[in-house]
Specification:
Number of strands: 18
Mean pLDDT: 86
Strand order of the largest sheet: 6-1-9-10
Strand content: over 45%
Shape: globular
Low-confidence stretches: 7-20
Keywords: Signal
Largest sheet: 4 strands, mixed
Oligomer: single chain
Amino acid sequence: MMKRLSLLMLMLSFSALHAEEGKFHRLRVLTVGNRAPFKQEVRDGVRYEIDPPEGSLPPREISVGFVKPGDEAEDSSERLSLRLGEVSGGVQVTVKEGEAPVVTLRDSSTGDVWLKAPLGGGDATLLVVWRVGAKWDKVRFLALDESKQAVPAQATRVVNVCSGDVGVTWGEKKLLLKPGKQAKLEFPAGATGGRLLVQYPQGGGLATAIDTNVENEAGTLRQWVVFQADRKDSRQPVQVLPVIGNR
């Protein structure tokens, strides 16, 4: 009897300790937009690439700090490298049950705050960021739950960060995706893939942003971020960035 009681107390203590320590939450960052036009100049008969205009690209490196509820100080700080159109590496933070930490991203070169955002649900967040002006000092973001529960196996996801609605066709299913919204699209049972069509209003009709076949591969997570072109000379005002990685 005493052994059973001791074992029960040990299990309860372990559960309490685990709850106090919390769970790991992974954060990744994706910046979407268009690069400045490639330009060169000739000096002494040699062609040199001209650096893009200042502010036309996201910060090359950001410091990541996590602010816990009721605490103005940043709990920790790690660094992430950013490249436009690519998902960054990941950092982890311990989140206790009931907490909703806010992440602070700073430009590592200046120390200035770039943005503050709450983490998404589940155990992983993909923070999609896009600029709202001529430079990347003013941005908007959407925190996506990137856990396995949010986008399970046998499914893909489309996310709309445009300023207007887009139409999504998945097989025979059609839906209207509003700004800031997402759609989880499930593959038919036994299907090896599915056709994805994303369209947007143009000239009184519909123009195609992407029309592709999405493969249904075990262990692969496929997401599609629909965004507004941020260059005036872009031939396609609405574009789609495929985000493909391991589950």
